[in-house]
Amino acid sequence: MDVSLSSWLAIAVALAAANLPFMNERLFGFIPVGHASADRGPVKAGWWRVLELVVLYFVVGAIAYLLEARIGNVFGQAKEFYMITVPLFVVLAFPGFVMRYLRKRHH
Fold first, then answer.
1. Which of 21, 100, 25 is nearest to 60 (CA)?
2. Which three-class secondary structure state does DSSP give residue 55?
3. Quick one: which of 10, 45, 55, 88 has the fewest CB in 10 Å?
4. Terminal C-alpha separation, the chain
5. Helical residues (DSSP H) of the chain, grouped into ranges
6. DSSP SS3 for 35
7. Which residues, at least 6 apart from 12, have a Cβ–Cβ distance to it below 8 Å?
């Protein structure tokens, strides 16, 4: 796998993982959590979504680390790396946030 394909794969995985907490009412897409709502069924609490986003950030980081290790030497990461990637991951989650909380629902 070349560097370009590996980079795009890491970005695609990050985009999918960042939006996963907002696209379903299950934890990591598998574990049912939440309380029942009268009109929408079970609803996952917001703090579950934030916790899921944090865990998925580290999962994506591990996947990116493994992809980087496959193509060559792994570069050391300082605090600046995390100061950039954490907000980037949150920005990648914006489409899911908009679909979950900001879009008007017509009943």
1. 21
2. helix
3. 45
4. 47
5. 3-23, 46-71, 79-92, 94-97
6. strand
7. none
Question: Structure tokens of 102?
Answer: 């900001």
> Cα separation of 23 and 26, whole Å?
9
Residue carrying structure tokens 């999962």: 59
Distance of CA 19 to the CA centre of its chain: 5
Cα distance between residue 40 and residue 50, in whole Å: 21
What is the C-alpha to C-alpha distance for residues 46 and 7, in angstroms, rounded to an integer? 31
Q: How crowded is the C-beta side of 93, counted as CA atoms within 13 Å?
A: 22
| DSSP 8-class letter at 1 | -
| Residue labelled with tokens 């980079």 | 7
Q: DSSP class of residue 26?
A: E
